TrEMBL record:
Pathway: Amino-acid biosynthesis; L-leucine biosynthesis; L-leucine from 3-methyl-2-oxobutanoate: step 3/4. Keywords: Amino-acid biosynthesis, Branched-chain amino acid biosynthesis, Cytoplasm, Leucine biosynthesis, Magnesium, Manganese, Metal-binding, NAD, Oxidoreductase. Binds 1 Mg(2+) or Mn(2+) ion per subunit. GO terms for cellular component: cytosol. The record marks 143, 194 as: Important for catalysis. Catalyzes the oxidation of 3-carboxy-2-hydroxy-4-methylpentanoate (3-isopropylmalate) to 3-carboxy-4-methyl-2-oxopentanoate. The product decarboxylates to 4-methyl-2 oxopentanoate. Its EC number is 1.1.1.85. Mg(2+) binds at residues 227, 251, 255. The lineage of its organism: Bacteria, Pseudomonadati, Pseudomonadota, Alphaproteobacteria, Rhodospirillales. This is 3-isopropylmalate dehydrogenase. NAD(+) binds at residues 78-91, 291-303. Belongs to the isocitrate and isopropylmalate dehydrogenases family. LeuB type 1 subfamily.
Length: 372
């Protein structure tokens, strides 16, 4: 059934298609049990697109992504692509999507479900009830800065280099998102950089400080160096509310935060563009924080929860379906409470289940929630 909820599904590589497939079962459930349908289109990205088209992202798929209300993304990459030229590696497909859709704001919430407080790398009291938001700038910094390359040097050795660049408008726009998020949460923003050693960090701190003076009403801002932030995240994560940081630090700190929640398989994300003033819409792509996990791909053991929670974020941010998002999150909470665990979050006394069985149980919990 066609609907105006256009969602482009890009499973990608490795466990990407495996976890996306599980979300599509929830999409089916919503059509059957809630009469909510999505206009789904599927496409190739990453190594899968390279294998078929010789590029990790075709112009047609990019156009479909731009035209959609939301992209549901799995993951890209794999060891079989290690020897490809840099510009056609699977990861370039995702980076191009982020850049060309101008998805500058990457929201990576790290929340500890009640049933998971003992699965964390930290002691229960340090993480129980944890709810922090890592806001990662996604279209600038060293992932895109020029020049970069590998040059031959006269002495026969080589020089590899990348460039970290941030401009005032780039920092301001992510700073505004941080303040907006904080106002809906606990009102605290920690801006993270390395202003002690990087000029881009000096500018970042200066711009955030000025923005806070001009537009930061109701928000408490503090600054922290990225290395200290990594340590503080595992020392006392509850000190944070919103962490706003650049592309590279955000990538690293969010993988670190994953272990507070129990596993990388638990962490969702939303990559959002600016809201169009005329249509009120924005480009959006929903992706788990994890990658294609080649070490477990094809074994049927990947944790689908990060992808499920990413879809919940799509329901909330792109489809104005907060009730369904809450329901999906509640169902996940209930499944975890019932003691089911995929291998990555396995604990003593719990029952180990496959990717598919985890979703079977999730669907049963959704059934229970709608039947009252
Ligand atoms: N957004 C994306 O598409 C990303 C892609 N990558 C790519 O993925 C490939 C593998 O990268 P890695 O560094 O190994 O990172 P990874 O995130 O794929 O895996 C790291 C570890 O976490 C585990 N893991 C990840 N997701 C899991 C899940 N849902 N359930 C259970 N266990 C899970 C893996 O088994 C592995 O041991 C590389 O090609 C990398 O470039 C990496 C990160 C993000
Ligand atoms: C392009 C991705 C492979 C980089 C990454 O690790 C991420 O965005 O989380
Ligand atoms: Mg990453």
């Amino acid at each position: 059934m066609a609907s105006n909820r256009k969602m482009l599904v890009l499973g990608g590589d490795g466990i990407g298609p495996e976890v996306v497939k599980e979300v599509l079962r929830v999409v089916d459930w919503m059509a059957k049990k809630r009469s909510v349908s999505f206009d789904l289109q599927e496409g190739l990205v990453g190594g899968a697109a390279y294998d078929k088209h010789g590029t990790p992202l075709t112009d047609e798929t990019l156009a479909d992504a731009v035209d959609s209300d939301a992209v549901l993304f799995g993951a890209v990459g794999g060891t079989q692509y290690d020897d490809l030229p840099f510009e056609v590696k699977p990861e370039r497909g995702l980076l191009r999507l982020r850049k060309e859709m101008d998805l500058f704001a990457n929201l990576r919430p790290a929340m500890v479900f009640d049933a998971m407080a003992d699965a964390s790398s930290l002691k229960r009291d340090l993480v129980s009830g944890l709810d922090i938001m890592i806001l990662r700038e996604l279209t600038g910094g060293v992932y895109f800065g020029q020049p970069r390359g590998i040059d031959d040097l006269p002495d026969g050795t080589k020089k590899g280099y990348d460039t970290q660049v941030y401009t005032t408008p780039e920092i301001e726009r992510i700073g505004r998102v941080a303040f907006d998020l904080a106002r809906k949460r606990d009102g605290r923003v920690t801006s993270v950089e390395k202003a002690n050693v990087m000029m881009s960090g000096v500018l970042w701190r200066e711009v955030m400080t000025n923005l806070h003076k001009a537009e930061g009403e109701g928000v408490v801002l503090d600054h922290m160096y990225a290395d200290n932030c990594a340590m503080q995240l595992v020392r006392n994560p509850k000190q944070f509310d919103v962490i706003v940081t650049d592309n590279l630090f955000g990538d690293i700190l969010s993988d670190c935060a994953a272990m507070l929640t129990g596993s990388l398989g638990m962490l969702p994300s939303a990559s959002l563009g600016a809201v169009d003033e005329v249509t009120g819409k924005r480009h959006a792509l929903y992706e788990p924080v994890h990658g294609s996990a080649p070490d477990i791909a094809g074994k049927g053991i990947a944790n689908p929860i990060a992808e499920m929670l990413s879809f919940a974020m799509a329901l909330r941010y792109s489809f104005d379906m907060g009730e369904e998002a809450d329901m999906l999150e509640q169902a996940i909470q209930n499944v975890l409470k019932s003691g089911l665990r995929t291998a990555d979050i396995m604990q003593d006394g719990m029952a180990r289940v496959s990717t598919t069985v985890m979703t079977d149980s999730l669907l049963k919990e959704l059934d229970k929630l709608v039947s009252g």
